[in-house]
Design brief:
Length: about 290
Amino acid sequence: MHEYHIHDVMGFVAKILPSSAVDGPGNRSVVFLQGCDFDCKYCHNPETRKSCSACGLCVSHCPAGALKLSDGQILWDRSRCTDCGTCISRCPHSSSPKVQQLSVSEVLERLKRYIPFIRGLTVSGGECGLQAAFLTGLVRGAQERYQLGTLIDTNGSTDYSALPDLVAHAEGFMLDVKAWNETEHKALTGASNRMVLKNLDFLAGMGKLYEVRTVVVGGQFNAEETVREVSRVLAARGSQARYKIIAFRPQGVRPQFQTLPQPENQKLQQLADLARSIGVKEVLVV
């Protein structure tokens, strides 16, 4: 990929977060890309899944007057927007009217002012792997322009073994393994986990796995099996990746799924002990 192509590639960007302490090590800027091929029951960013249908239902509800419908498109005025979230909460499609199509160069330029204050960049979503060319350009551009490392926050549905340029230039990957059993994974997300498990093994073997995460939701999947099998892969590959075991929380989840059972802390600690007993050196309970 030549320099011209890196800066010229376009992508659909949901939002850019200037500063975050929870999306990788240190203070980091986060670029959220729009679009996801999973439909997780407990998704905490459901508005990043689908494209805006330009139905216009959000326009009249915007208290800041930052939205208008013109020629079949929703126009968003960033200068008037207060990020109150009304448009997203009113959308019957669980989407956002604020998605922008930006080039790699435009994203890098928006990040420029934050460079002195951040340790790195994280690209998330939605599912960022669905925009592989844009993602690769952004990772390489951040490295070449700002000497900034990038972590890829992914659901693992993209075949990263087929993207050697991206893997080589990425600082690392943060991989969600939602369930080990494929049937349970389909019930939880609406999609297969075969590629997820392939990426787990591949990225662990490449030494590119920074973190694996499993969200524990009572009664939705076999958490013990998932933690045990993921831990076995990490140990077998000699991976130094940390394993983050996360309690389901209803905040930000679509209303119909907010009543999913939350696990007890004792259960989470038992899962963490299981991972450690298999050989995972760093396990976090969140």
